[in-house]
Amino acid sequence: MNYNEIVNYIEDIPKFTVKNPLEHTKELLRRLGNPQDHIKVIHVAGTNGKGSTCAYLASMLSAGGKKTGLFTSPHLVKINDRFRINGEIMSDEDFVISFLKVKEVIDQAGADGYAHPSYFETLFLMGVDYYYRKGVEYLVLETGLGGGKDPTNCVERPLACIITSISIDHVQYLGDTIPAIASEKAGIIKPGVPIIYDGHVADAANVIANRAKELESPAYVLMPQQYCLKEQNREGIVFEFEGEELRIPYIAEYQMMNASLAYFTMKKLQDVHDIDDETLKKGIQNVTWPGRMETILPGVIVDGAHNADGVAQFVKTVHQFRQNNRVVLLFSAVSDKEYDKMIRLICEDIKPHAVITTQITGERQVTADVLAGLFEKNGAEQVYAEPVVTEALKKALELQEDGMVFCVGSLYLIGEIKASLQE
């Protein structure tokens, strides 16, 4: 099979398999030789901010001279984006090599009566094969969905676990209350392994703290009073974390928490990685993480906020810029998100000068017309529905004038926009 045939095969997996229990993933890993056991893993879960936190961690480790893998999801443009080593995306050749290795194991297990792995499970298996084969020393590993039942939770002895902010999301899989979701995320905590977590939501923090106590895991909670903003402009943010000055190339205040979680973790692991503070700070300052308050054209910013809590943070950032700038919004969302709540938050707090809605193809599609109707219902005055993402972007640029365009609501939207710009 060539690269394109393999990508098509993987994209078709959801049509013929279901989510499997962890024992299934563990058996396939065993047949691969348990490559994950030979890599130092930092395991990250959470509702919002886990991708950014992973990016900060990987950037600091790379700055310290460590060969570092980064496994994240979803991909924005190309499926290879999920696999990086020291910032470099996996090549098509390596993608083929790891898939064929994993496919051989899948076929052997299938002959023994095991089900085919799920879409995400397959990619995780490919990832651990790739990182081990390339001699990665550290792996920053982001969960796919949830925590305890996620295939990545087969890593039995990570260096540390991190849980970022928790809010209502994926209610059909994780529960419809903060404690229920926190309990699922806390499933990544391992006996005796340090857990570093966001403590600003007490209902979530209490669940995590209790689970850590049960497992006798050293627990370190990050509270808002540990960091404070010093300076914010279009180039980024300067802030203090426990008296130390840190700089990040992002304009959103919530990134202080993600960067602080990552820095806090690296400080707790300093006797393991032996990277000095100045190098850690340079790693944080030089981080790159596509699709998170990322400027892709002059005055055009894309942000991966895709649930109500993420959009609330997005709104706080945009509100500051609206005071002196015309704001045009390009929006889309998928059906399993609280898009009506997201739209209400945007209309109440930003009051964009113009809105263009568009739609993402697939089973979870919400039409541009439905989204436009919700914006109009919530008081937006200049609203346009354009189903084709490339045409929607063109319309947004036409309406921009000397202001700013913000694209938000779905990571899939951001991926399509970035892909169209590349083309």
* Total strand segments: 17
Q: Which of globular, elongated, flat, extended, rod-shaped describes the shape?
A: globular
Poorly predicted regions are: none
* Content of β-strand: 15-25%
Major sheet details: 8 strands, mixed
- The helix-and-strand class reads alpha/beta
Fraction of residues in helix: 40-55%
Note the total helix count: 16
Q: Over all CA atoms, what is the radius of gyration?
A: 21 Å
Query: How would you state the average pLDDT, rounded?
Result: 93
Strand order of the largest sheet: 4-3-2-5-1-6-7-8
Characterize the structure shown.
The structure is a single chain. The protein has helices at residues 3-12, 22-32, 50-63, 92-111, 119-133, 171-174, 178-185, 202-214, 255-268, 270-273, 277-285, 308-322, 339-349, 368-377, 389-400, 411-422, and strands at residues 40-45, 68-71, 83-85, 88-89, 138-142, 160-163, 195-198, 219-222, 227-233, 236-241, 244-248, 294-297, 300-302, 327-331, 354-357, 383-385, 404-408. By secondary structure, the protein is of the alpha/beta class. It has 16 helices and 17 strands.
Q: In summary, what is this structure?
A:
The chain has 16 helices and 17 strands. The chain is of the alpha/beta class.
SSE inventory with pairings:
Layout: H1 3-12, H2 22-32, E1 40-45, H3 50-63, E2 68-71, E3 83-85, E4 88-89, H4 92-111, H5 119-133, E5 138-142, E6 160-163, H6 171-174, H7 178-185, E7 195-198, H8 202-214, E8 219-222, E9 227-233, E10 236-241, E11 244-248, H9 255-268, H10 270-273, H11 277-285, E12 294-297, E13 300-302, H12 308-322, E14 327-331, H13 339-349, E15 354-357, H14 368-377, E16 383-385, H15 389-400, E17 404-408, H16 411-422
Parallel strand pairs: 1-5, 1-6, 2-5, 6-7, 7-8, 13-17, 14-15, 14-17, 15-16
Antiparallel strand pairs: 2-3, 3-4, 9-10, 10-11, 12-13
Helix pairs in contact: 3-9, 3-11, 4-5, 7-8, 9-11, 12-13
